[in-house]
Design a protein that fits this description.
Layout lengths: L4 E8 L2 E8 L9 H10 L6 H19 L10 E4 L5 E6 L5 E6 L4 E5 L5 E5 L6 E6 L6 E6 L4 E5 L5 E5 L6 E6 L5 E6 L4 E5 L4 E6 L6 E6 L5 E6 L4 E5 L5 E5 L6 E6 L5 E6 L4 E5 L5 E5 L6 E6 L5 E6 L3 E6 L5 E6 L5 E6 L5 E6 L4 E5 L5 E5 L6 E6 L6 E5 L3 E4 L1
Antiparallel strand pairs: 1-2, 3-34, 4-5, 5-6, 6-7, 8-9, 9-10, 10-11, 12-13, 13-14, 14-15, 16-17, 17-18, 18-19, 20-21, 21-22, 22-23, 24-25, 25-26, 26-27, 28-29, 29-30, 30-31, 32-33, 33-34
């Protein structure tokens, strides 16, 4: 289950399928048993035998919602991670470990609590640019490099399982599917590829873009993937067949980021054309254009419930939009330079931004009020992330250090 929702996995006619159930009405005072009984009426998959389990999950979810926010983060550690600049940082689900990619051609695995380096993943012949854990499991790491290869590693041993070869140019983005059976890579060669983690083989090449693929994202059920390109379009692909289902056409500049919402019904895209667009994921039609930024939109994301959208821009501001009404509900103003990254905390109550003004900021997602400025980096911050509990933050900077808050 996710925050504000449950994903049911079931087998039908020998095929494994998934369905998501929204719990957006869940509040700290909701009668959980009554809520689950109500859901059961319309959901044949929830049988009497698994009722107790579902009730238990929803109760845990409710406890999370009821926890009091403690908004103050303090600096916990500064890690001088690599000799050359960092490219990316990423947490495993719990936040107990994180990884850093670097121009020094390595990816390093760190223990968050001790700040100790656990492994250096060596083997790439050029910049390690894109990195990821296979969350929620966290037992594997994928690295994508300017050497045109992607490598799959064991988190425990640091050994390389597979080297995926096939791209003709730099790999700049990658992602595991939610089931952790595939890894997707996007490349400057205009294609994305899907690779089988077990077999170490290429499963599909997603061809159709006329320029670099710089963003990709699976939906929560793992049956669709989107790719965003410098050709101004986003393509929606069927993961099983590798077939292109839709091309989202409308932006007038390069795509900077693209993401599905939690129930897989919407796609949000950000572009250098200063706008963000909302699309129907099933039909590929545009629902709305979210305007207001005075410069390029560099990052977009949904909150976990898919209710709100946050955008980060080169104009130094971030914005929050209501996905339902398409209205701008908050402007996050205070950074002195461009904001390259934006993300919600898991609860959706708070937003984190990373800026080239050397600070990261925390904001109230409802009011847009700045809650805290995370200071201390001596160069621009290009990466920031929460752990799953929302109580630890990592920031990565061009000053070659990571800070844990």
């Amino acid at each position: 289950f996710f925050l504000k929702g449950i994903i049911l996995e079931y087998v039908e006619g020998g095929e494994s399928k998934t369905r998501s159930i929204d719990l957006l009405d869940l509040r700290p005072d909701t009668d959980v048993t009554a809520l689950v009984e109500e859901i059961q009426k319309g959901e044949p998959l929830i049988t009497d035998s698994c009722m107790e389990h579902v009730i238990h999950l929803v109760q845990r979810l409710q406890e999370k919602l009821g926890e009091k926010e403690n908004h103050r983060f303090s600096l916990f550690k500064v890690l001088r991670t690599h000799m050359l600049p960092l490219t990316n940082v990423a947490f495993n689900k719990s936040g107990s470990r994180f990884i850093t990619g670097s121009y020094d051609r390595t990816c390093k695995l760190w223990d968050t609590a001790s700040g100790e380096e656990l492994h250096t993943l060596e083997g790439h012949k050029n910049v390690v640019y894109a990195i990821s854990f296979n969350n929620p499991y966290g037992d594997k790491i994928a690295t994508g490099s300017f050497d045109k290869t992607c490598r799959l590693w064991s988190t425990e041993t640091g050994k390389c399982y597979h080297t995926f070869r096939g791209h003709n140019a730099e790999i700049v983005c990658l992602s595991f599917n939610p089931q952790s059976t595939l890894v997707a890579t996007g490349s400057m060669d205009t294609t994305a590829k899907l690779w089988d983690i077990e077999k170490g083989k290429e499963v599909a090449t997603l061809s159709g873009h006329s320029a670099e693929v710089i963003a990709l994202s699976f939906n929560t059920t793992g049956d669709r993937i989107i790719t965003g390109s410098f050709d101004h379009t986003v393509a929606v692909w069927d993961v099983g067949t590798g077939r292109m289902l839709h091309t989202l056409v409308g932006h007038r500049g390069e795509i900077s980021s693209a993401q599905f919402n939690w129930d897989c019904s919407l796609i949000v895209t950000g572009s250098m054309d200063k706008t963000c667009m909302l699309w129907n994921a099933l039909t590929g039609t545009r629902i709305a254009t979210l305007t207001g930024h005075r410069n390029e939109v560099l990052d977009v994301c949904f909150d976990y419930a898919g209710q709100r959208i946050a955008t980060a821009s080169a104009d130094g501001s971030a914005r929050v939009y209501n996905a339902e009404t398409k209205q701008c509900i908050a402007k996050l103003e205070g950074h002195e330079h461009e904001i390259s990254k934006v993300c919600f905390n898991p609860k959706g109550s708070c937003i984190l931004t990373a800026s080239s003004d050397k600070t990261a900021r925390l904001w109230d997602a409802t009011t847009g009020h700045c809650l805290q400025i995370l200071e201390g980096h001596t160069d621009e911050i290009f990466s920031c992330a929460f752990n799953y509990n929302g109580d630890t933050i990592i920031t990565g900077s061009k000053d070659n250090s990571c800070r844990i808050w």
